[in-house]
Design goal:
By secondary structure, the protein is of the alpha/beta class. The chain is 44% helix and 23% strand. It has ten helices and seven strands. The chain has a seven-stranded mixed β-sheet, with helices on both faces. α8 links the parallel β4 and β5. α1 packs across α2, α1 runs parallel beside α5 and α3 packs parallel to α4. The termini are far apart. Bound molecules: ligand OZR and magnesium ion. The site of magnesium ion has 5 residues, from loops.
Length: 214
Amino acid sequence: TRSTRPQRLLNAVRKHATRGDPQSVISAIDHFCRHSEWAMNIGDEKGSILDSVVSELNPEKVLELGTYCGYSTVRIARLLPPGARLITLEFNADYAAIARQVIALAGLEDRVQLVEGASEDWIPRMKEHFGIETFDFVFLDHWKDRYLPDTKLMEDCGLLRKGTVLLADNVICPGVPDYLQYVRNSLSYKSCYFKSHLEYTKAEDGLEKSVFLG
Ligand SMILES: O=C(NC/C=C/[C@H]1OC[C@H](O)[C@@H]1O)c1cc([N+](=O)[O-])cc(O)c1O
Ligand SMILES: [Mg+2]
């Protein structure tokens, strides 16, 4: 049977990256997506904005919604101190299998926990199953119609604290209008928009950074 795009992306990482070198994994994926096949990774331009938000925050407890092939997982985890932990949720088992290998090639499995399943099933279990009190940083990049319900679910489960930062990908393309309206109008968030481009294209897209005010 034909290979899948994630499998071809993993092959490119195996071929061009250096095991244990996260930057080489990132560069291999960006090269593959620019020159071989577009894929829905956050990419290098928006990825630099993600890097700056993570570096400034120095989070200990991170949640990523939507792993896909693990590109943003590697971008975030490479900036975390060894004691920090990143939990990443992926619904699609095939994507999860690829992402595990990408994360291992980057040598970051010690600070990443990839969980397969639906965000709405796992968010309510974060405390009792992973011993998480609250998250310092949440990266939203999964199904666009899940950003808002999952944000409300995280609030209801007490997983956000005063100062928790939410960073949402694709707020323009494909777009998350209900989520944007919520975080920009709610008195519980201080929100700002980082204008950029859809990964590997000239189309406008951007990231929305929202600080939970408690
Ligand atoms: O759907 C997107 N992401 C949602 C991913 C959905 C998949 O990952 C979580 C779930 O397992 C699903 O199979 C997306 C789509 C585009 N796009 O240009 O279409 C660009 C992006 O950056 C995106 O994150
Ligand atoms: Mg995205």
